[in-house]
Write a structure and sequence with these properties.
heterodimer, A: Glutaredoxin, Rossmann fold, Ubiquitin-like (UB roll), five-stranded mixed β-sheet, 21 helices, 16 strands, B: alpha+beta, Glutaredoxin, 7 helices
Chain lengths: 512, 147
């Protein structure tokens, strides 16, 4: 009899609700019963409200059980891990919230052991890199251009144009830098990918290196992600041993070497120039642009800087062709975005879908509304610098241009839901407070404006010259938007003004 | 500080600097190495780091104090990071932080996102994540950590 194959995620989100304890209980129970069992610690499928979600392999595919607690384990063995058990969710890939996704970048995440090179390759890994090795560098760049891929970190700049700029720059050394400083609250896609399918990021970065002529890459991972750091470091060591990284990528004679660097708790280091400073061993202070990092980046050399999700999209584009990738999406937003549902949400998790669905579909059809069961009041899209989107705008398609048209941003795809108990004035104040804590201090509108902003909101709330102070807040926000050096100060007014505009009653103002 | 401690500290400083000084942008990796080894970045490390990297002591000090992650003194007990960002805030994170601060027995610190936002509120205790936190679960966690 072949041993029962059991999957228990090793993703930090699963660990945070007891996955290690569940795995230990399964191992112990199998030993007690003397039943042969093989335990695989996979990544997470992203259906996080079902964690710890345990899967077993059957001849007809994987069957899921969840959320599993250690105490459930004996009864799961007793039921023979069969459909009759109350925790059985049926075939994993037929769980409705999973079935409706288009998993391109996250195709393997949760399916495989993240550190198994054999499984990575068996499920299509390195196909994009092999294809890239057969192409001239300009042809790789052209494929990325043709795919319509835009930067997934938030700025949505066309990835291919950035790569072309670096490819055309002449320098003795160029760099590929991955921004894995995923500081936006409500986002965790980078973390899940680095923990659940780290070889994909390595593959995407290696392709970038070949495309632009860079032999060295660095990944800047935030210190709040110890599990991602450990998983990614382990993956780099394995890839080096297997000859994917090093002096001759897959035996091609072309070099690409990769290292990780760990951040140190500074949100603004997610801004690309502050990140470069930090990588160089300095305080994470924003640089003025120009020069663009593509011309003069890390240590003054031409540098490609992309987000984890941008690099992760590239192997699919190379392996399946740019036409395949750009068929999905809406308007000028091509391909997929791993949306992350968070906050007060019943079905929180990661859902990779083509651009173009609406917030209403995402939050209600997939997310199931609030966890508290109360009505949704506001939805913040795009991290702490994104706007609070009111009910009237929940039918706008989630694409970069449609969101820009309503003064909102998609950012990194993070969506935080608030129920009707949320105090929008306090959330606006928090946006200012966060900016004051995290501002690098280089420019005045951000450094001073954020502190003054919190004070002004306090005066509005306590009704000290309320109308005059509202006017002052708007003028202050205007200064921050137009006078700040980077998005930290420049976008902090987005959540503040959207809260004020859409929820004036929370500031003690009459509803318009 | 006892003389053995100070010798151990000096050895760790020398070892970490020697291991990492060759890296490009070596300062942050060195500071991380010291904090991993000693639990904090001691003041005695500033001069040797500056010397090794050809920086001024002011530059090294400036970097240590810029980043929230680096501590200049050992933490008082286990480090309990409580997330204050929007997602956890809307699920009761602020009350958990207040509870953690009031309880003693651990070093309660704010953190801005642990990437566990789909299961807010979240905390991290000495590098171990805990999510879907409740006041009762936090209380049990703190009691266990303090033991």
């Amino acid at each position: 009899m072949s041993p029962l194959q059991v999957y228990v995620p090793r993703d930090a989100a699963a660990l945070a609700v007891g996955a290690d304890e569940v795995a230990a209980a399964i191992t112990a129970e199998a030993a007690r019963l003397g039943s042969p069992m093989q335990l695989v610690r996979n990544g997470s499928r992203g259906l996080l409200w079902l964690e710890t979600m345990v899967e077993v392999a059957t001849p007809s595919g994987r069957i899921a059980f969840g959320p599993v607690q250690p105490a459930d384990v004996p009864s799961l063995f007793e039921a023979g891990w069969a459909a009759g058990h109350p925790l059985c969710l049926g075939p994993t890939e037929q769980i409705p919230e999973f079935a409706r996704q288009l998993r391109l970048s996250f195709a393997r995440c949760g399916l495989t052991d993240p550190l198994s090179l054999a499984e990575y390759e068996a499920h299509g890994g390195w196909a994009g890199l092999r294809r890239a090795l057969a192409l001239a560098p300009e042809a790789i760049v052209q494929q990325v251009l043709d795919s319509g891929l835009r930067g997934r970190g938030g700025a949505a700049f066309p990835t291919g144009i950035k790569w072309r700029t670096v490819a055309q720059a002449a320098a003795p050394q160029k760099y590929v830098v991955c921004n894995a400083d995923e500081g936006d609250s409500g986002t965790f896609a980078d973390r899940m990918l680095m923990e659940g399918d780290p070889f994909l990021l390595i593959e995407g970065m290696a392709i970038a290196g070949l495309a632009v002529g860079a032999t060295r890459g660095l990944v800047y991972i935030r210190s709040e992600y110890p599990h991602a750091i450990a998983a990614f470091d382990a993956a780099i060591a394995l890839a080096r041993e297997a000859g994917v990284l090093g002096a001759s990528v897959l035996g091609s004679g072309r070099a690409f070497e990769l290292e990780t660097r760990v951040g140190a708790g500074s949100y603004v280091c997610g801004e690309e120039t502050a990140m470069l400073e930090s990588l160089e061993g300095k305080r994470g202070i924003v640089r003025a642009k120009p020069p663009l990092p593509a011309i003069s980046g890390l240590f003054g050399r031409p540098t490609v800087i992309n987000n984890v999700l941008s690099f992760a999209a590239v192997p699919t584009i190379l392996a399946q062709g740019p036409q395949f990738y750009q068929e999905f999406g809406s308007g000028r937003s091509r391909g997929t975005l791993p949306f992350q549902l968070a906050g007060n949400i019943r079905h929180g998790g990661l859902f990779e879908l083509p651009f173009g669905l609406t917030l209403r579909e995402l939050v209600f059809d997939i997310g199931g509304g609030t966890a508290s069961g109360r009505p949704v009041k506001a939805i913040q899209v795009g991290g702490p610098l994104g706007t609070y989107v009111p009910a009237a705008q929940w039918d706008v398609p989630l694409d970069y241009e449609a969101y820009a048209a309503i003064g909102a941003v998609l950012g990194h795809g993070g969506i935080v839901v608030h129920d009707d108990s949320a105090d929008m004035a306090q959330l606006a104040r928090y946006a200012m407070e966060f900016c004051a804590i995290e501002s690098c201090g280089k420019c005045t509108p951000c450094r001073i404006g954020s502190t003054r902003g919190a004070e002004v909101i306090d005066r509005i709330v306590s009704n000290q010259n309320r109308l005059q102070q509202v006017q002052l807040l708007r003028e202050l926000c205007d200064t921050m938007v137009h006078g700040s050096l980077c998005a930290m100060g420049g976008m902090t007014p987005f959540p503040v003004l959207s809260a004020l505009d859409h929820y004036p009653e929370d500031f003690g103002l009459r509803t318009p | 500080m006892s003389p053995e401690n100070s010798t151990a500290e000096r050895d760790a400083i020398t070892r970490v600097i020697e291991e990492r000084r060759h890296l490009d942008g070596a300062l942050l990796p060195i500071l991380h190495g010291l904090q991993e080894a000693l639990g904090h970045v001691p003041a005695a490390a500033v001069a040797p780091i500056a010397e090794a990297l050809n920086l001024s002591r002011a530059e090294v000090h400036g970097v240590i104090t810029y980043y929230h992650h680096f501590r200049q003194a050992p933490a008082a007990g286990p480090v309990l990071q409580v997330c204050r960002a929007e997602s956890c805030r809307t699920m009761g994170g602020e009350a958990l932080l207040a509870q953690a601060r009031a309880s003693g027995g651990c070093s309660a610190e704010p953190v801005y996102c642990l990437g566990l936002c789909a299961m807010s509120p979240a905390v991290m205790l000495d590098g171990r994540p805990h999510a879907r936190m409740t006041p009762e679960k936090l209380d049990a966690l703190i009691k266990e950590a303090a033991r």
